[in-house]
Amino acid sequence: MGKYILKRLFDLVPTLFAVAIITFIITRIIPGDPASVMLGPQASVEDVKELREELGLNDPLHVQFFHYMKDLLTGDLGVSLTYNEPVIGLILERFPNTLILSFSALLIAILIGVPAGIIAAYKQNSLIDYAVMLVSLIGVSMPIFWLGVMLVLYFSVHLGWLPATGMGSPEDGMLSFLKYLILPSITLATIPMANFARITRSSMLEVISQEYIKTARAKGLSEFLVVCKHAFKNALTPILTVLGMQISMMLGGAVLTETVYSWPGMGRLIVDAIEKRDFVVVQGTVLFIAVIFILVNLLVDILYKVVNPKINYSAEKRGV
Description:
The protein is 78% helix and 0% strand. By secondary structure, it is an all-alpha fold.
């Protein structure tokens, strides 16, 4: 297991190198001149040319890429063109906010989606099962930005129960902070919740039909123990797979959610950077998200081993 973890960490290097190349190319072909955006529409042509020269935008692409990789190897993600601050500082300032939102959404998705999938599998072909699957289908198909706007219109504008945008501060009281968190968390949790319900149901149905489940029932064990202890434990592996995917996808979903609710996280930072043609921030945040994505997948693989000690990664590597 230790060798497998080390190998995955070494694999991080070429993956991040590829991400850096792709991000560099995409940010350079995006229409718009960062110097013109920074100086505004009233700037003269001479001022724009001078700023482009100062930022190194007139250098050939291979020269710009060389300087970018040189800074990257020393841990320097660059300085934001808009904020005039180190990109790593902006990321570390915004990432905790995105983490709070993503963790809250994930908690909601698991606490509702997994039990719903278990109940749907136990009540297969019943009205409850059909209702869970119908709601899951709607949840997967619903656009995040549309759901966010609808929730704001109903709960904020129409009822006035919850704030529409922004992020509360714990210093104002936990209740006030939670009010700002509820709508963004529900919006971001909708698709993962639906996926958890569908995968849990499918996995549970496969496990419930196994002979050892019938044996457990024949021994006189209660249905609660049979379903929650024996069946659910053996159905965990596909759920863990979905867990890793959903955590990674939440970082992408957070871009839309944070934009709708003006949540000051990394998603909002990326959108603002794209609008202002701040390619330095875009490169740094995308690379940071790629690192999180890879580390989450590694953590999921480790959880596989904890849940099912029979998994042999060395054998898997040889194709056994």
